[in-house]
Amino acid sequence: MRFLLSLFVIIISSWNVFSQSKGYEFTVDLTHVVDDKVKVELIPPTIAENEITFYLPKIIPGTYAVQDYGRFVSALEVKDKKGNLLPIEKIDTNAWRIQKAKKIAKISYWIEDSFDTSLTGPDIFWPAGTNIEEGKNFVINPAGFFGYFEGMKELSFKFNVVRDKGFYGSTGLIAEKTGEPLVLLKNESPQPDKRVDVFEVKDFDRLVDSPLMYAKIDTAVIYVGKTEVLIGSYSPNGKVTAKEIANSIKEVLMAQKEYLGGTLPVDKYAFIFYFTDQPVTSYGALEHSYSSFYYMPESTIDRMKQNLRDFAAHEFFHIVTPLSIHSKEIGHFDFNNPKMSEHLWLYEGVTEYFAGNMQVKYGLISPEQYLTMLRQKLLIADGFRDDLPFTELSRKILSDYGDQFYNVYQKGALIGMCLDIKLRKLSDGKYGLQNLMAELSKKYGKDNSFNDDDLFSEIGALTYPEIETFLKTYVGGPSSLPLKEIWEEVGVKYTKELEEKEVNLGFGSNNITVLQYNDKPMIALQNCDHLNDQGKAIGFQNGDILIKMNGVELPPLGPETSAIISKHRATMKEGDTVTYTVLRKDEIGDYKEVKLEAPIKPVIVTKQHVLSFAVDATAAQMKLRKEWLTPQD
After folding, report:
1. Confidence band for 21, pLDDT divided at 50, 70 and 90
2. pLDDT tens readout for residues 310-337
3. Would you state the pLDDT for residue 190?
4. Per mean pLDDT, which range of 81-90, 376-385, 498-507 is the poorest?
């Protein structure tokens, strides 16, 4: 039986027992929500200065955009050991200057969440946000709850989370203590419905790198080699469970382990999924060294299975970059005056390339599906600047080129592909991009950072002079990637533009918009004056909301919608009849169901970036293709 004296004590009623230490100690109470806010308290480390600045982050790694987490703070107070208020001055959105800093005994403030805030400021990428939903869900991205003192973010950070007994915290952190009954100092009796989880990390970088989600328990665990992988899920209407997600992504994780050489560089990893039943126009995921956080529309596992696998594959590979390979700008991140690294092609581009290449290598998708995936990246990349050096894009992503960021997942992945094929060609198939990343991980590791300016020459020294030249020309310079030449090495035919007949369902991407119906985002039609002949025959009109296709209900906009449409496109042939049910406004503005149909007639289309496997590929091309697309011994 555990003695009462061993229970964790939260001091809430006396200032005299506060003792400062070398590190920070935060407490956040999730059981006491007031006006959609929770209180955060800090016992600070020992401070030697008479004046010091307390910060919440302006920006965090991985988002490449300003967040301004300080705007969610209210009623910040600083007190000495006697409970006297110390003078403070808010000097900008994210910073407070504190006088008589040597006397600080405690800082307290209230935090509002970002998910449903009415505060003005930059939009926060959902997976980097915070949620306070009393009795249901709490998303703790630590940058939105905890701060640091100027010049003191390298100290240790301990934080205590007070939670309801029935709640569980999904995180990649390993708790120092978990589930301890709460004890109040005055009455010395446990609070039966409250528990405390205690975590400690070495510095503020590790703290920000460690999201948590508290909700009623819905978890599953997968063992990938010796690594424990936690799946934590919050689905407000129970449409998907952690166990279903685990079963869906398990084979992806097993394949990734083999792709990375059979072992993983972490002992524990967490996939944290927050599913929303509210209308969304954007969703996504954010990587961390030991976890990844996902914000997605709530749906069944069947409807979002491939989307989940693609997301998981990309984010899980971030255990290589930036955990084991990163520049000084990432390794010693400045949360309030950041300098960006030049190498987004490495952190995001290579990671995205691995996520697709791994799936084809281990049979999770077919080679033909993989070419379709690469073609899609080319099509999206056409919407961005091709003459902008990737190093410059990365360095100025916060100032000049924020609108170019999404290209890191398109052209960035294609850079990774080109490097992989070139390395295999130069090494007669013995060495590829996987090998290079393994060597860079060994050379640097999680505790050592490379110099941005030296990376290309470092890679050249590890591999071949031709690779250094490639990087300087196509990553550090404005030249277009030599895709035709690269793909020819592996027997892939590449045509930049081609006219051909195809089965068309009546609309293209320029005809699609999103309209809200019953508070849900639905696919609708626009630009109907520019429909192709198939669309004109069907009879679409501007504002039509698509609700059924060939009798199959189309869900609100989400990851499964395009999959349903693509399935119909792949199975229909000339002479078949395509049918749609649309919602169309009548003369008084009420929506009425209208059924539309027309026979399928091939239309002449101009296709961009057409890829196919050459049927007359040489033995050398087939050998290199095999080394590119299949596992090597």
Report:
1. low
2. 989 999 998 887 777 888 888 888 999 8
3. 64
4. 498-507
DSSP H/E element including 533: helix 533-538
- What number is the average pLDDT over the span 581-593? 92
Neighbours of 283 (CB within 10 A): 19
Give 407's Cβ-side CA count (13 Å radius). Answer: 21
| SS (HEC) of 569-595 | HHHCCCCCEEEEEEEEECCCCCEEEEE
Closest listed residue to residue 214, CA positions, set 229, 232, 241, 187: 232
| Lowest mean pLDDT, pick from 30-39, 200-209, 306-315 | 306-315
Rounded to the nearest angstrom, the gap between the alpha carbon of residue 9 and the centroid of all alpha carbons in its chain is: 36
What residues contact 439, with CB distance under 8 A and at least 6 apart?
A: 462
Tokens of 279: 């209308």
Taking alpha carbons only, the member of 308, 284, 281 closest to residue 295 is 284
Average pLDDT, the chain: 90
> How wide is the angle at C-alpha 259 spanned by C-alphas 253 and 261, nearest 5°?
110
What structural domains and CATH numbers belong to the chain?
A: 4-214 (2.60.40.3650), 218-319 (1.10.390.10), 339-492+618-633 (1.10.390.10), 504-601 (2.30.42.10)
* Alpha-carbon torsion, ordered 544, 545, 546, 548, to 10 deg: -110
Say if residue 322 is preceded by a cis peptide, omega within 30 of 0.
yes
- For residue 39, how far is the Cα from the chain centroid? 27
- Over the range 52-78, which residues count as b (16 or more CB within 10 Å of their CB) and which as e? bbbbbbbbbbbebbbbbbbbbbeebeb
Distance of alpha carbon 630 from alpha carbon 625, whole angstroms: 8
Q: Residue 139 and residue 137: Cα distance in Å, rounded?
A: 7
Query: Phi and psi (nearest 5°) for 174?
Result: -100, 120
Q: Count Cβ atoms below 10 Å from residue 200 Cβ, excluding itself.
A: 19
pLDDT score at 1: 29
Determine contact, residues 213/234, Cβ cutoff 8 Å: yes
Q: What is the pLDDT of residues 93-123, one digit of tens each?
A: 999 999 999 999 999 999 999 999 999 999 9
Token pair listed for 332: 């010693």
DSSP 34: B
Region 339-348 average pLDDT: 92
Which pair of structure tokens corresponds to residue 567? 């399935």
Query: Model confidence over 217-234: pLDDT tens digits?
Result: 999 999 999 999 999 999
Residue 461 CB: number of other CB atoms within 10 A? 12
Q: Residue 521 pLDDT > 80, yes or no?
A: yes
Q: What is the pTM of this model?
A: 0.81
Cα Rg of the chain, angstroms: 27
| pLDDT at residue number 574 | 86
Of 183-192, 478-487, 493-502, the least confident:
183-192
Q: What is the SS3 assignment for 74?
A: strand
Annotate 329-366 with DSSP letters as a single string: HHHT--SSS----S-HIIIIIIHHHHHHHHHHHTTSS-
Could you tell me which of 323, 330, 202, 220 has the C-alpha nearest to residue 267? 323
Run of H or E including 604: strand 603-613
d(CA 157, CA 162): 16
* Greatest C-alpha distance within the chain: 85
